[in-house]
Every structure is written in structure tokens, then in C-alpha cells.
Design brief:
Blueprint (H helix, E strand, L loop, with lengths): L1 H24 L15 E9 L13 E4 L4 E6 L2 E13 L2 E8 L13 E6 L2 E5 L7 E6 L3
Antiparallel strand pairs: 1-2, 1-8, 2-3, 3-4, 4-5, 5-6, 6-7, 7-8
Protein name: Lipocalin-like domain-containing protein
Keywords: Signal
Organism: Haliscomenobacter hydrossis (strain ATCC 27775 / DSM 1100 / LMG 10767 / O)
Length: 143
């Protein structure tokens, strides 16, 4: 009987250690909310690089407008080309943006996958983390 109690106690201690380790292993950064205000506004497309040949592609739009209500519009000057919603996510210390195109279908790879978000001074850089590896570079538009 004494041996059974010792085994039961060891099992309970082991379970408590596993639970504590699991709770400590969870990184609170994964649940952090990125600063949406940094991406809001109208951005002028400066360049697209990457792709299979590394030359990017010619876009049929030249402005990206991202709003506080998590909607975006891709414009050719002032003409609406595409619109939809976006969601920012923080993962492994990096910020990603997921674009969901609305009713207007797009044949460009822009919405194909989440993009890593980075800033270089006054530039916004959106990069595909996989596959075609397109990189979009924007400057803040002057209104």
C-alpha cells in the first residue's frame, strides 16, 4: 500500500511539472497585437522584386491604401482596382499581414500568401516568406 501511495505521488508531481513546463514554454509574444497604426495610410508602390526570374512583375496598380477598419484598396492613381480586408498577426517576433481580396478578383500574386511586414525609415516592405518570394516596397504617399 505504501508503494502505491509513492507511485501516485510521483505521478502527480510529474503531471504538475509537465503542466508548469508547458505553461512556461508558451511565448506571450505570439499573442501580442502588432501596431496597426504603422501600416495605416496611403502607400505608393515603388518596386516589386523577386519571383522566379527575380525581376518581379509589372503591377496594374500603384497605390495601396490601408484603413483603420482593416480594409484595403489597391488603386491605379485614383481608380479602384482591388479591395478587401487585411489582418495583422505577430508570430515568432515578426509581423505578418494577410490580405483577403473582396468581390473584385485579382490575377496578381499580391494576395496569394501572408507577407512579412518590415519598415526601413519611411519605407514599408512587404515580403513573401515562401515560394515566389516577391518583395513589395512602398513609400508613404503625399496626400
Amino acid at each position: 500500500m505504501n508503494m502505491f501511495k509513492a507511485f501516485k505521488l510521483k505521478s502527480w508531481v510529474f503531471a504538475a511539472l509537465v503542466l508548469a513546463t508547458t505553461m512556461l514554454a508558451c511565448d506571450s509574444k505570439d499573442d501580442a497585437k502588432p501596431d496597426q497604426s504603422k501600416v495605416e495610410g496611403k502607400w505608393k508602390l515603388e518596386s516589386i522584386s523577386g519571383g522566379f526570374a527575380g525581376n518581379g512583375y509589372t503591377a496594374d496598380w500603384n497605390y495601396l491604401e490601408m484603413n483603420a477598419n482593416k480594409t484595403y484598396r489597391r488603386l491605379q492613381n485614383d481608380t479602384l482596382r482591388y479591395q478587401g480586408t487585411y489582418e495583422l498577426q505577430e508570430k515568432d517576433g515578426k509581423t505578418y499581414i494577410d490580405f483577403k481580396v473582396g468581390a473584385t478578383p485579382s490575377n496578381s500574386p499580391f494576395e496569394d500568401q501572408d507577407k512579412e511586414v518590415a519598415f526601413d525609415k519611411d519605407k514599408l516592405i512587404l515580403s513573401d516568406p515562401c515560394c515566389d518570394l516577391y518583395q513589395y516596397e512602398f513609400s508613404k504617399a503625399k496626400n
